[in-house]
Amino acid sequence: MYDLLIFLALIAVGYSVGTLLEKRHYHSIHKREKAFFYLPAVTIKSVDYPEEKIRSAELVYGSVVISIDCFKKILAGLRNIFGGTIKSYESLIDRARREALLRMKEMAGDATVIVNVRIETSTIARKANKKGVGCLEAIAYGTALTLEK
Amino acid sequence: MRYTPRHPKSNVNVTPTSHIREFFVLAGGLLSLIVVIYLVLGLTVDLIVPHISIDLENKMGVHFFQSMGGKDVDSQRGYYVQSLIDDLRERCAKLPYRFKIHVRKASTVNAMALPGGHVIVFTGLLDKMSSENELAFVLAHEMGHYAHRDHLRAGGRAVVLMTFSALLFGADSSVSKILSHTLNITELSFSRKQETMADEFALETINCAYGHVGGATDFFEKIPKEQDTGKIGHYFASHPETRSRISHLNNIIRSRGFNLAKRKPLPKAIWNFIP
Hints:
Chain A is of the alpha+beta class.
């Protein structure tokens, strides 16, 4: 009974704190995305531009590690039983990717465009200890080009 | 190609949904599934139990026993009780179990038959004993539950349910853990008929072991006096009313012509030894 109470308390804390943190994170993501509107990040390999006018081309990347809260984990565990889309993880991955892209853009500074952008994800601390709460790493990388007008 | 910065109006990658609602729907679904399985198991336990081999029972018994936790104490009296049950088994009740006595420190006047031949005896019970015959009757009573496999019937639902959850979600999953914490497998309750059968078995056994049944009803006769103090654990509260048990035992003793003779005292050196 005592264990069950602790378990329920963990879920409640996980839900309330997790939701609050997610809300704040999204708020920050929206704000920074608007601030970086001037810098396109695209998947095309290069730009059609005379080579001598490209001032610099450098690798830029941004990575982030986000942990799931235990409410989301339990919810996903329940989903594992019945099947279907694991909606509780969707926002997690969405946040990680967008945050990684933003960090990449921050690294690019005043570049004109970032080309050949790729996003990759991996899990951390999942396999080593099955009991641990999993976390997710997203890394975005690309080539930042600074063009002369 | 012109680049026009634009914020997407909606996020296609995140489904706008209420996680709390999803949680309750899924948890509710799982719970009702468990309830249905539990009810069905309750109906099928009696069909399954006779088919559980002793070998399988021994394997499951380890898990049951480990989930109890705790430590064996009082090895002096433990060895004595062990030798007593081994002697009973060898001479009078040839059961296909290898009984292992575990003495646990608790004031509960209680003994329990766990799957796999693990018999838990609480120090509270040992303290109440006044003769070897009395103790032998309690042990033989537990052996009676093994002989009729009542311990599996009583814990059968929990056994099968835990096996199911281990198979479905993995033995280490959070679901199995919640289950094993919620299911109190030590709360084995036997039906009145099972208790009576075990009593009859015990009577036969100690008649065989000692040549008489003196001391068989001693333990029950102590209970009414002490029940008011509330010191008697749920073991004998869960057993059929002691008065009718005593009279039932006396009826059998009369009808089968069992003798009543002098009780064998407990070995003083061991019993009064305080560790």
